[in-house]
Design a protein that fits this description.
Elements: E1 2-6, E2 9-14, E3 21-25, E4 28-32, E5 37-42, E6 47-53, E7 77-81, E8 85-90, E9 93-98, E10 104-108, E11 113-125, E12 132-139, E13 145-148, E14 162-165, E15 182-183, E16 186-191, E17 194-200, E18 206-210, E19 217-222, E20 227-233, H1 237-248, E21 261-263, H2 271-284, E22 290-293, H3 314-323, E23 327-332, E24 336-337, H4 343-350, E25 365-367, E26 370-373, H5 380-388, H6 391-395, E27 398-403, E28 421-422, E29 429-430, H7 431-434, H8 438-454, E30 460-463, E31 466-467, E32 475-477, H9 485-500, E33 506-507, E34 509-510, H10 519-529, E35 535-537, H11 541-544, H12 555-570, H13 572-585, E36 590-592, H14 593-596, E37 609-612, E38 616-619, E39 628-633, E40 637-640, E41 646-648, E42 651-656, E43 664-667, E44 671-674, E45 688-694, E46 698-706, E47 720-728, E48 733-741, E49 749-755, E50 763-766, E51 769-772, E52 778-779, E53 782-788, E54 793-796
Parallel strand pairs: 15-31, 21-22, 21-35, 22-23, 23-27, 27-30, 30-32, 32-33, 34-35, 45-49
Antiparallel strand pairs: 1-2, 2-11, 3-4, 4-5, 5-6, 6-20, 7-8, 8-9, 9-10, 10-11, 11-12, 12-19, 13-16, 14-18, 16-17, 17-20, 18-19, 24-26, 25-26, 28-29, 36-37, 37-38, 38-43, 39-42, 40-41, 40-43, 44-45, 46-47, 47-48, 48-54, 49-53, 50-51, 50-54, 52-53
Domain Glycosyl hydrolase family 31 C-terminal: 586-672
Domain Glycoside hydrolase family 31 N-terminal: 38-209
Domain DUF5110: 688-756
């Protein structure tokens, strides 16, 4: 035992002693010391859960993060006894449990160390607040890099940093501010080409040290609850991400319009201002699908109400917007105004659904409406009640909801006092345990309400606070950022980190929420945001009177901004396919280069370069006045999007960065599907699907997913998977298409555009029929053909 001091009192650190007995129950193994029990559960050949009972008594086995669909499916496992350890072996890994002290060593089948305890599990009693502080310390392997943990505003590689999860309203945060809004206790380790993950499923305040205190040790601990973590073996980092999604659940497909452009401001009011904004978008032909209403649409900031002065006819307003192609998203905060004449407040108190202090009084705190009480979203009855409140909003035409201030945030106090009690699905706990899941459960209840009342349409929810597993029902954004070049950099790394932390459907407030960007900064931010899954401009314009709309910076910037929003809409089939990969398998939509080229050590510390899906590599312009940028390209062939210049990967290349361009590359061998230009999703029937095909050596594969873009028929088979196989060399190009599905798309043909051919073809063979290539088939160095949708094989030679 090790003695430390805390507030003048001795607090003893306890460590497990020698294993005295063990037993096996199915895929569970139990190891008993004199005081401690280790429960080791083999979930799959690559996923093992470790759970410790420090005093020999396990707590309730309950999780808000773990998916109900998680299946135990190990192909094979057995236990072997050795003189100094027990070995549990699967087809992929070996787990060694030391007899002396329960320390864990995990290797691959060949015996290479993947992850290894230093002191391993230990604990101390939390004398000031009760319960235990539980710890786990592990050795840092040579050259190890660490990633993940959600929205941390720092370098992607977390080596040498200490970070904390405690949802915080971090208004105007900066680089390295910690903690922020989201609580994702999941990280990756990468060393010697081996990738793994650790998900520490504990909702108390959790901390992670990646070699900051001791450079050869990493540790994670929580100020309460159990040491309960999942070990995930890759060895590929993307496979770790997919296994994490297997544990915590995958997203549902959003409505296609939610992947379009969103415009938001604090606040657009009155209704005439909203109509003016909508009209300007359509008059200027700038694509936009969603307009947001911030807190000023309400009557005195009372949730689920409409301002009689500013929005006297909400149903008529939203119907008019819908007729012009706009979906309306409204903000809903957790604070319910203390007002005896306000029905939501009356019902909340009458039903006993408000969070309470330890003495039983409702928790009260000031937020935008003034004095408020707060629903206890950890109570399933409260979640069901909250879901029902969205009926009137959806009846008025609301199509999406934005949950804000749900860390939870309280003016002056910061958040709830720790003595506040929560139901926690029947457990009755303090706010210390419930804090990090409060916003998680609010957004869950919101999504359930929208799904109930919008059926058959798919809901759209965006939340500020989240816990692991929130991806099952909501999107997120990076919070109250600042109009600065540093925050443009942060937006890039935060969205990459959120993506590999399970929350791909993420974006930032384009242009910055606080302050005023100039035209160059806003334009560069739009370019970055065009390649984030959520693309939303948002600003605190009520504070400055400044309008941060796409046309606010003059004609030169407006033209470039418009061109990139248009590019976003052309890329919707590709982005939607990438979202389908995320929804079906948990594959991150944004992929740092370390995740796609982990065996290349040059990628491990990169922050600027990342991929959207399988084919697009992006590096944003990160400084004012930048005229060129060096970009590292992984191994392979790459084409610069704007002029088809070919580059060989495995090196850094320099490209010019005029205002109208950004570093954007397409991977050789890719098929990137595109739509014709549109101003909003559903504006017109898509009669032509464009296939941008990029030459690559050897054999490559691409995929296109399509369905109706809304509704749930895709869950009963109403979708198409179109797989492309490209085989090419220096003299011949072959593209085969395999179609599987039952969705009847509108388009009748493909416009196939083949880029980067290393030879000049004389003819093409379409499904066995030879045709000559004519001058009109060559357009600016690209071979372009109009083919029937049903074509199966195209050969150029």
């Amino acid at each position: 035992m090790q003695v430390t001091t805390t507030s003048g009192k001795y607090s003893v650190k306890h460590f497990p002693d020698t294993i005295q007995k063990w037993k096996k129950e199915g895929n569970y193994f139990y190891f008993y010391t004199s005081t401690t029990i280790l429960e080791l559960r083999v979930i799959s050949d690559k996923i093992v859960r470790f759970r410790y009972a420090a005093d020999g008594q396990f707590q309730r086995d309950f999780s808000y993060a773990v998916s109900e669909k998680l299946e135990e499916s190990p192909e094979y496992f057995e236990i072997r006894e050795w003189a100094d350890s027990f070995e549990i072996i699967t087809t992929a890994i070996r787990v060694f449990v030391a007899r002396e002290n329960l320390r864990i060593t995990i290797t691959d089948i060949a015996g290479r160390i993947i992850n290894q305890d230093e002191t391993g599990f230990h604990w101390q009693y939390y004398l000031q607040k009760g319960g235990k502080i539980v710890y786990c310390t592990k050795l840092v392997q040579e050259g190890e890099a660490f990633y993940g943990l959600g929205d941390k505003p720092t370098d992607l590689n977390l080596r040498g940093k200490r970070l904390e999860n405690f949802g915080t309203d971090a208004y105007g945060y900066n680089k390295d501010t910690d903690p922020l809004y989201r609580n994702i206790p999941f990280y990756y380790g990468l060393h010697n080409g081996i990738g793994y993950g650790i998900f520490f499923d504990n909702t108390f305040r959790t901390l992670f040290d990646f070699g900051k205190e001791r450079e050869d040790v990493t540790s994670f601990w929580a100020r309460g609850g159990e040491m309960n973590y999942y070990f995930i073996y890759g060895p590929e980092l993307l496979k770790v991400a997919e296994s994490y999604a297997r544990i915590t659940g995958t997203a549902e497909l959003p409505p296609l319009w939610a992947l379009g452009y969103h415009q938001c401001r604090w606040s657009y009011f009155p209704d005439t201002k909203v109509k003016e904004i909508a009209k300007t978008f359509r008059d200027k032909g700038i694509p936009c699908d969603a307009l947001y209403l911030d807190i000023d649409y309400m009557e005195g900031f009372r949730c689920f109400t409409w301002s009689r002065e500013y929005f006297p006819d909400p149903k008529g307003l939203l119907a008019g917007l819908a007729a012009d192609g706009f979906k309306t998203v409204v903000i809903i905060d957790p604070g319910i105004k203390v007002d005896p004449d306000y029905p939501v407040y009356q019902e909340l108190l009458q039903k006993g659904y408000a969070c309470k202090r330890a003495d039983g009084a409702p928790m009260e705190g000031d937020v935008w409406p003034g004095k408020c009480v707060f629903p206890d979203f950890t109570d399933p009855k409260v979640r069901d009640w909250w879901s029902g409140l969205f009926k009137d909003l959806t009846a008025n035409g609301v199509r999406g909801v934005w949950n804000d201030m749900n860390e939870p945030a309280v003016f002056e106090l910061g958040t709830f006092p720790e003595d506040v009690r929560h139901d926690y699905d029947g457990e009755n706990v303090s706010h210390r345990k419930a804090h990090n899941v409060y916003g998680h459960l609010m957004s869950k209840a919101t999504a359930a309400g929208l799904k109930r009342h919008l059926m058959p349409h798919r809901p759209f929810v965006i939340t500020r606070s989240a816990y692991s597993g929130t991806q099952r029902w909501t999107s997120v954004w990076t919070g109250d950022n600042i109009s600065s070049w540093e925050h443009l950099w942060l937006a890039s790394v935060q969205c990459q980190r959120l993506s590999v932390s399970g929350l791909s459907f993420a974006g930032s407030d384009i242009g910055g929420f606080i302050g005023e960007p100039d035209g160059e900064l806003y334009t560069r931010w739009i370019q970055l945001g065009a390649f984030h899954p959520l693309m939303r401009t948002h600003s605190a314009s009520n504070e400055t009177g400044f309008n941060q709309d796409p046309w606010s910076f003059g004609p030169e910037y407006e033209a470039v901004v418009k061109s990139f929003i248009q590019l976003r809409y052309r890329l919707l089939p590709y982005i939607y396919t990438t979202f389908w990969q995320y929804a079906a398998y948990g594959t991150p939509m944004l992929r740092p280069l370390a995740f796609v080229a982990q065996n290349d050590p040059n990628t491990h510390d990169l922050n600027h370069e990342w991929m959207l899906g399988d084919s697009l590599l992006i590096s944003h312009v990160s400084e004012p006045g930048m005229t060129s940028k060096s970009v590292y390209l992984p191994e392979g062939t790459w084409f610069y999007y704007f002029n088809d210049e070919r580059f060989t990967g495995g090196q850094a290349v320099t490209v010019p960065t005029p205002l109208a361009e950004m570093p954007l590359f397409v991977k050789g061998g890719s098929v990137v599907a595109q739509y014709p230009d549109m101003e909003y999703v559903g504006q017109k029937k898509i009669m032509e699907m464009i296939l941008q095909v990029y030459h690559g050596e050897g054999t490559t594969h691409s995929i296109l997913y399509e369905d109706a873009g809304d509704h749930y028929a895709y869950k009963t088979g109403q979708y198409n998977l179109i797989r492309f196989k490209q085989t090419a060399d220096a003299k011949q190009f072959r593209l085969k298409k395999k179609f599987v599905g039952r969705y009847e798309a509108d388009y009748t043909h493909h416009r196939v555009r083949v880029h980067g051919l290393p030879f000049t073809p004389k003819e093409y063979v379409l499904d066995g029929a030879v045709q000559p290539l004519l001058p009109q088939h060559f357009v600016q160095g690209v071979v372009e053909l109009k083919l029937e949708r049903e074509f199966e094989e195209l050969i150029l030679r």
